[in-house]
Structure formats: C-alpha cells, structure tokens
C-alpha cells in the first residue's frame, strides 16, 4: 500500500519511470482481467448452446445425446403401461386419458431411479401410514400395500408411477417432459421442454 | 615413465576436483561443518540447523504432516506410472483400468498403491488438521500457514474427488453426478459451476477429460506450490510444540 501511495504522490510531477510503471502495470491488470473473463465467462444461453458464446472453458457446442427423440408409434404402448427407456432416461406412461413422459432424473441429486412393481409394501409393513398419491388418490395401506413406482439407488428416494415423490430426500416430483405426435405418427419426446403435471397427449 | 607419472597426477587432481565438486563439505564431523552443510545444501535446507529434542516428540505431531507429504510423493510416482497405460476417453478409460489390473505387469500393485495411498492421504491430512487445531498450533504467528493448510486440505479433497471419476465405472459416474449436483445447489453460481466442471450437462466425455486434466496437472501443481510455501513457513514460524 505504501508503495502505491508513493507512486501516486510521485506521479503528481510524474517521472518517465513512474509513468511507464503505472502504464505497464495498468495494461497488465486490464489484460489479465480480460483473459480471466474470456476463460471463465458465463456459459452460452439457450438450450442448443449455438445461439450464444461463453468463455473458453464453457463449451458452445455439446456433442451430447440430443434432447428430442422419436419413441415409436402410440399403438406400441398398451393401455395402463409404464415403459422405461433406460438409455434416454425417460419413462412413457399410457393411461386411459392419454400419454405422458417423465424425465427419469431424481430431483434430489440427479441419479436414475429404477422401476419396481412394488415400492410401498415394505414401508406399510414398517407401520408407515399416509402413503397417498395426490394425483391418482391411490393409497398404500394394510388392506392394499402394493403400489408400483420408482426407487432411486443413490439415496433411496421413492416416487409413485406418476413421478410424484413420497419418500426419501427428493424435494419434488420428477419433471414431466413434452410428448407430441410427429408428422409420421410417431411419438416425439423433447426432454428439454418441461410440461405441466396435468399434461396428457390424447392418442 | 616421467610422462606417465605427470599424466597420473593430472588425472588425480581432476578426479579430486570432481569429487570435491559433488561432495563439497566433507563428513559432518563437527557441529560447525554440519551447520554449514545444512545451510548451503538445497536438499538439506528444509531441515533446521539445530533441532531441540522437544520439537521432534512423536506424541506431539504424530508425524501426520510428514506422512501426508510421503503419501503425496507415493501418489505422484504411482500416478505417473498409471499415465503410461490410462487414456482418459469414454472408449478406453474403463478398459485401460482393467488392463492395469489384469494385464500389465505389476499394474495391479501400482493401481492399488495409488488407490490406497489416496484414501490414506485424505485420512492423514484430516488428522493433521485436527492435530493442529487441538494443539492450538494455528494461533498467532501461524495464522497464514493455517490458511495455506486449509487450502491444501481442500485441494486434497478435490484430488480425491477428481480421481474418483477416472475408472469410469457406474460408481464413478453416479458419484460425480451426485457431487456436481451438490455444487449446483449453490446460490446464483451453482448451475454455472456445474456446467464449467462437467463441460456439459451430463457426466460425459468432456467431464472425464476435465477431471483428468485437473487430477494430473492442475491440482497437483497448485498443491506442490502451496506445499513449498507451507514447509517454508513451518521453518520460519518455528515449532509450536514445547520449548
């Protein structure tokens, strides 16, 4: 600090030496700040990443699996079925009132929950009551202990078949993602578009 | 005969000069010679010229800092060996790890030395921090070294974390998924930090390469520099143990 103060005081009647010193260190500081920004600048905006440009360490283009994919004809899915597309990390449920897709990413810390035909009976046996799906109004109790759903292998979060969390550390239901009917009549899933919990594709 | 004798004398003096050039101080027969050797030798300068018996009481330091440094050296050497066979790509990483275990001569020994030393180093560094804390050795005038030490603890944990992804098995991938999602929970900078760490949105090829670069170059380099300062400050601040 003392040196900087003296440098500034000296600069009132600035010698050539202190002028170049200030100019040099100033250029170095500004250059370093710019270099830091160009390295670590914020990531590109937009879901494709092409419409923006981030710092050097934030890739502008990702060669990851595309968010949207085709999932076959609607007739391939039986009424009331639950189909897990493991590699895509998506679940397609078909109910009497339509299709919906679940992004199979645990809302706790991002692992992939696994489908089980029974995720409740062991809890009912332990005496845990009040296991109730608010959307389907299904209840797991002593009379009817078995409900299907998902269990996360990482920290034991549990979800009903419709992705609503009911046990473990998961803070909220898994995301529902967009399902559309493509022009070729096949289901088109877009994992980057999160839709409302009431969304159904009539088909 | 005379010529041969002169040549021999010449050769002898050159040899003497070379030996004296390498061993400059002779045997440390007196305290003075020992002190001068310790002061002027690069490799010995890390040792104090004089050591009080109370400073090297094992029951005080428990050798934890030294053990941590020893493990760091073990990890550097075995890590260098592993780099000859391991390629940090999605196609090769897991297979290379298996080759090291089952195909490469002594590969299993090297890999396990690296693995166990890594686990041990996390333990010894934590215990070292605990020892310094419980003996109050972080207090004035050693606050600066305490700050460097806590940074070294953080780097040790980051080295452990980055190394965990490299076998590229299910355990690694989901552990890093969980770990980087924890980073995402941080306010404001969370999602940015995760994107920067992974170089993408999921644990994939970019993440593997980034963790590899951080594990074998970035973090060890910073750790080494901080260790140099850490040891220098131990020498300058003196021992905290009984006087």
Keywords:
heterodimer, A: 203 residues, alpha+beta, six-stranded antiparallel β-sheet, four-stranded antiparallel β-sheet, 25% strand, B: 243 residues, mainly alpha, 10 helices, 71% helix, 0% strand, extended
Report on the structure:
The complex is a heterodimer of chains A (203) and B (243). With 203 residues, chain A is α+β, with helices and mostly antiparallel strands. Chain A is built from three helices and twelve strands, in the order ααβββββαβββββββ. Chain A has helices spanning 2-10, 16-40, 121-125, and strands at residues 68-70, 82-85, 90-95, 98-103, 114-116, 131-132, 139-140, 149-151, 158-160, 165-167, 176-181, 187-195. The longest helix of chain A has 25 residues, at 16-40. The N and C termini of chain A lie far apart (73 Å). In chain A, 23% of the residues are buried. By secondary structure, chain B is mostly helical. In chain B, 71% of the residues lie in helices and 0% in strands. The longest helix of chain B is centred in the last third of the chain and has 33 residues, at 205-237. The radius of gyration of chain B is 24 Å and the shape is extended. Chain B starts with a helix and ends in a 6-residue tail after the last helix. The interface between A and B is medium-sized, with 14 and 15 residues.
Sheet with most strands of chain B: none
Bulk shape of chain A: elongated
Distance between the termini of chain B: 65 Å
Order of SSEs of chain B: HHHHHHHHHH
Helices of chain A, by number, come to 3
Poorly predicted regions of chain B are none
Spatial shape of chain B: extended
Oligomer: heterodimer
Radius of gyration of chain A: 28 Å
> Can you give the mean pLDDT of chain B?
92
Class by helix and strand content of chain B? mainly alpha
Cα distance spanning the termini of chain A: 73 Å
Helix content of chain A: 10-25%
Low-confidence stretches of chain A: none
Please compute the radius of gyration of chain B using only Cα atoms.
24 Å
Number of strands of chain A: 12
SS-based class of chain A = alpha+beta
Total number of helices of chain B? 10
Amount of beta strand of chain B: under 5%
Strand tally of chain B is 0
